[in-house]
Amino acid sequence: MSLLEIACLVTCAGLSLAGAAVAFIVLTEGRYLGKSLVRWLYDRLAGALAASEDTARWDAFLRAVPIASQERMLDVGTAAGHLPLAVAGKPGFQGHVVGLDWSLPLIQRAQQQVRDQGLAGHTAFLVADARDPLPFALAPFDTVFCLGVLDALPQPEERLADLARLTRPGGRLVLSLSRRIRLADRDYAWFRRHLATLGFRSVERHGWTRLYDLVTARR
């Protein structure tokens, strides 16, 4: 589940003013009140996030973004790891998917699912903060996903450049674009402009869910 969907969940479930305050904190990743507060909220919501995912949305995602059987992939902001688990569980998949999230409780839940489903050979989960340079060498991945995260991060140009750094020549970058809420001028034109600067071509926009479109680009 993305940050935007977390905010919507909290807003609908709680009192209007309290829910709006929490939604603001989550959507801005604590940039105005300190990220330790949003990290605390995010960890407290770990159980709800892990249980609320809809398998159908990942089926729709994999139809929009076909995955080759040998790909090496990275999912930045993986939450409870639903996308890597969906990819690794595809019949015939022989690649490897790494999921990163800043929440230790969510990563631990994802690691338990790996053990339960027998996917250790194809999936790994690590704790890492998407605000920081990601802990990999240059361009090791065929596909890099970043869904429901970049819209809310400060210094998005730096974060996008770091995602590009991890995408091999000829590889893909797959990003989400919020349809309803933007905290900065990060529309499709923004993505096209910055992706072109980073050496990506064939930038395309695809429908996905009622909250998000997908932006895909080939390096």
Give structural attributes.
9 helices; 41% helix; alpha/beta; 219 residues; single chain; Rossmann fold; seven-stranded mixed β-sheet; 2 domains
Explain this structure to me?
41% of the residues lie in helices and 22% in strands. The longest helix is centred in the middle third of the chain and has 14 residues, at 104-117. The protein folds into two domains: 3-50, no CATH class; 55-218, 3-Layer(aba) Sandwich (Rossmann fold). It is globular. Helix 1 (3-13) packs antiparallel against helix 2 (16-27) and helix 5 (55-64) packs across helix 6. With 219 residues, it is α/β, with parallel strands linked by helices. It is built from nine helices and seven strands, in the order αααααβαβαββαβαββ. Mean pLDDT is 82; it is low at 24-33.
What is the molecular shape? Answer: globular
Question: How much of the residues is beta strand, in percent?
Answer: 15-25%
Return the CATH architecture of the largest domain: 3-Layer(aba) Sandwich
What is the CATH H-level superfamily of the largest domain?
Answer: Vaccinia Virus protein VP39
Query: Strand pairing plus helix content: what structural class?
Result: alpha/beta
Weakly predicted, low-confidence segments: 24-33
Distance between the termini: 27 Å
CATH topology of the largest domain: Rossmann fold
Please list the strands of the largest sheet in the order they lie side by side: 3-2-1-4-5-7-6
> What is the top-level CATH class of the largest domain?
Alpha Beta
Radius of gyration: 16 Å
Number of helices: 9
Secondary-structure element series: HHHHHEHEHEEHEHEE
Number of folding domains?
A: 2
Number of strands: 7
Assign a percent range to the helix content: 40-55%
